[in-house]
Design brief:
flat; alpha/beta; 496 residues; three-stranded antiparallel beta sheet
Length: 496
């Protein structure tokens, strides 16, 4: 179902939205703890005008204000206003816990660098990119200078190729934005593109772009953290555009501050009052008494720091689906029905804060758990060679290898443990490998100045090379004065 089908008429909820907005602001943290710079640009001077960019920025500014943000809103800013907005964001970030920069408008990628275009950008020469456009790298550098626990940049741009300049014909100008390099990502930051690197985003035909419309819905969802909101926005955009557009999310490190940031608490909407459904206010009725249900066996699952959480089997299916990677989040979990018999369910995958298991942890439930590090490194290197997307087979666990293991398990109908357990190793054909011990080779020096590994025997004598036969045309120089040349005689005469 497309996103726009869930939108009720404004006349039915505009008054309720005002009440809900005031209620949300009253229950959220101080506005100074959440700041945002929201920019929308439609009326370009030297580039094609856009229809929905300013409307998109207004929608996002409204949603962020409802969730406790202090918003710096700019519409059709020039380059100077753009810089002033960034400086104001930095000044207000002293006590803030999260900072957001949202931009809707034109963006270009030239020679691997991303630039956001203000309304007055002309760009008649390539050198003007540095003075008339805002580099994404500049925004990330400014965010790196402030002490924000969570930094978020959202870009809904690259809707088409906005400029046709002769100097661009000789430049490497890409289609869409380029991926952000790891070295450019500030600590505890997250960057979201409305379309993946090299893709063009859609502007929309009904007032807002597909990305911004889906994002506004997910940001208003109670009990959902910021990272989950972006992942679900991506899924909604893919469905709404019939896979023509797929957003892209990149996060620095574990991103704990972002994953723990919930804009609207789950219990913020009391029953019987105006609430939110799919992000939009609705009128709710008093709850009805539920019909009697059969007793369902509950189990406990570790949730971190030694704590446990009770789940019914179907609740655990939902938790496992939320914690699963995007590649298999939509997979249908096994249904257990309403049987009163206890059902053994797999433990939801919980990765360490670093985002991947160590070399010891990834083998903990497999046949090589007791093997030495040398053998396990060889097994891991062999597994990396067979897994897609694991990077170079270096025998070291990392984020790419961890994701490759989970994706392989999901694609082959294996339990998604994230570890190299027995079923996974069997599927990869890597069981039954013997334990090996690394032995460092020793070298001894023989009398002939040659080295042999662990050998003390005297080397065989080497035969002398045969004597060089003199050429029959060779004649040694003569010291007989009668046979000397005139020049040599003159050189030997004294006094000459």
């Amino acid at each position: 179902m497309k996103i726009e089908q869930n939108l009720p008429r404004r006349s039915n909820w505009s008054f309720g939205a005002v009440i809900m907005s005031a209620f949300l602001v009253s229950i959220t943290v101080n506005a100074a703890e959440r700041i945002a710079l929201v920019i929308g640009t439609n009326d370009y001077i030297s580039a094609p005008a856009l229809g929905n960019a300013v409307a998109d920025s207004r929608l996002i500014a409204k949603v962020l204000e409802e969730t406790g943000f202090e918003v710096i809103a700019l519409e059709n800013p020039g380059i100077d206003e753009f810089y002033e907005g960034l400086e104001k964001l930095k000044r207000l970030s002293g006590l803030a816990k999260v900072g957001v920069v949202y931009f809707a408008g034109h963006g270009v990628e030239v020679e691997g660098q991303n630039y956001l275009l203000p309304v007055d950008a002309e760009l008649t020469k390539s050198a003007q990119l540095r003075s008339q456009a805002m580099a994404l790298e500049t925004i990330l550098d400014d965010l790196a200078d402030v002490r924000l626990p969570a930094k978020v940049v959202i870009l809904d741009c690259c809707r088409d190729n906005p400029l046709s300049r002769s100097w661009m014909a000789s430049r490497s100008m890409g289609r869409g934005l380029a991926a952000v390099k790891d070295d450019d990502m500030p600590e505890a930051s997250l960057v979201v593109y409305s379309a993946g690197p090299g893709q063009v985003a859609l502007d929309g035909v009904d007032g807002n772009s597909p990305f911004t419309k889906a994002l506004a819905i997910q940001l208003r969802e109670p009990g959902q953290n910021l990272f989950q909101a972006f992942l679900k926005t991506s899924d909604d955009v893919v469905k709404a555009t019939q896979r023509q557009q797929e957003p892209w999310v990149k996060m620095d490190g574990a991103g704990r501050a972002i994953r723990e940031l919930v804009l609207i608490p789950a219990d913020s909407v009391p029953s019987g009052s105006t609430g939110l459904a799919n992000g939009y206010p609705i009128e709710t009725s008093p709850p009805k008494m539920p019909a009697p249900q059969p007793t369902i066996q509950t189990t406990t699952t570790p949730v971190g720091n030694g704590a446990t959480q009770a789940y019914t089997p179907n609740q655990r299916n939902a938790v496992m689906k939320e914690s699963a990677p995007v590649a298999y989040r939509d997979a249908t979990p096994p249904q257990v029905g309403n049987s009163p018999e206890p059902v053994e369910m797999p433990t939801p995958l919980v990765l360490p804060s670093r985002g991947y298991f160590s070399n010891d942890e990834v083998f903990r439930n497999g046949p090589y758990a007791s093997y030495n590090d040398y053998t396990r490194t060889k097994v891991l290197r062999s597994a990396q060679g067979k897994l897609t997307g694991s990077g170079s087979p270096d025998g070291k666990m990392g984020g790419n290898t961890q994701t490759a293991i989970q994706t392989y398990q999901a694609a082959n109908s294996l339990a998604v443990t994230g570890c190299l357990d027995t079923p996974t190793l069997t599927s990869l054909g890597l069981t039954g490998m013997p334990e090996e011990t690394y032995t460092k080779p020793t070298y001894t020096k023989s009398r002939s100045s040659t080295y042999s590994s662990g050998s003390t025997s005297k080397p065989a004598p080497v035969a002398a090379p045969p004597a060089k036969k003199k050429s029959s045309f060779y004649k040694p120089p003569s010291n007989d004065p009668d046979k000397m040349t005139h020049a040599k005689k003159k050189f030997m005469r004294p006094g000459t």
